[in-house]
Structure formats: structure tokens, C-alpha cells
Design brief:
elongated; 2 strands; mainly alpha; two-stranded antiparallel sheet
Length: about 100
């Protein structure tokens, strides 16, 4: 059973061979079959750096989330108090 990685590797080698064997008469250059030493795999250092979460960034995001929630709670409470005030004033005016 072939995996996706093996299929991609074969496909990539096939394309590289086609490109290397390309011959153009105007260039008068025939590329020799060369081994490509490029890779699509990321170095482990880069992967680990991306996985490490900065504690300051985590604290900042948590603080922003708390501030967002508190802001909306206070706005809701303010609107509820205004509506309650209108209701109480309405009750006293129409007694």
C-alpha cells in the first residue's frame, strides 16, 4: 500500500527527471541527470519553534479575552438597569 508521501516522492522525482532531460537547441545545452538535494521537509528546529507557545503571548490573549467578556457583560447590565429604571418610573407614574 503506497502512502501519500511515497506517491509524492515518486511524482517529484519523475518531474525532476523530465526537467533535467529537457533539451533546447537554441541553448545547445543538455542537462545531465543530477540528484536534487532539496527537500520539502522542515527542519526540526523550525517545527519546535512553532510549537513552543510564548507565555507572554498566552497571558496577553487571556487578558484580552477577559476584557472582551467583561465589556459585554457591563454593557448588558447597563442596558438592563436602564430598562429597569423605565419600568419602575412607569409604575410610579401610572399608579
Amino acid at each position: 500500500m503506497e502512502t501519500r508521501v511515497v506517491k509524492y516522492k515518486e511524482y517529484r522525482e519523475e518531474i525532476m527527471n523530465c526537467v533535467e532531460n529537457y533539451h533546447d537547441d537554441s541553448d545547445k545545452f543538455l542537462a545531465e541527470t543530477k540528484k536534487r538535494d532539496t527537500s520539502t521537509i522542515l527542519p526540526m528546529d523550525q517545527v519546535i519553534e512553532k510549537l513552543v507557545i510564548d507565555k507572554n503571548d498566552l497571558k496577553r490573549r487571556k487578558k484580552q479575552k477577559i476584557n472582551f467578556i467583561l465589556k459585554h457583560v457591563f454593557i448588558g447590565l447597563g442596558i438592563a438597569l436602564i430598562i429597569l429604571a423605565f419600568i419602575i418610573i412607569g409604575i410610579y407614574l401610572f399608579k
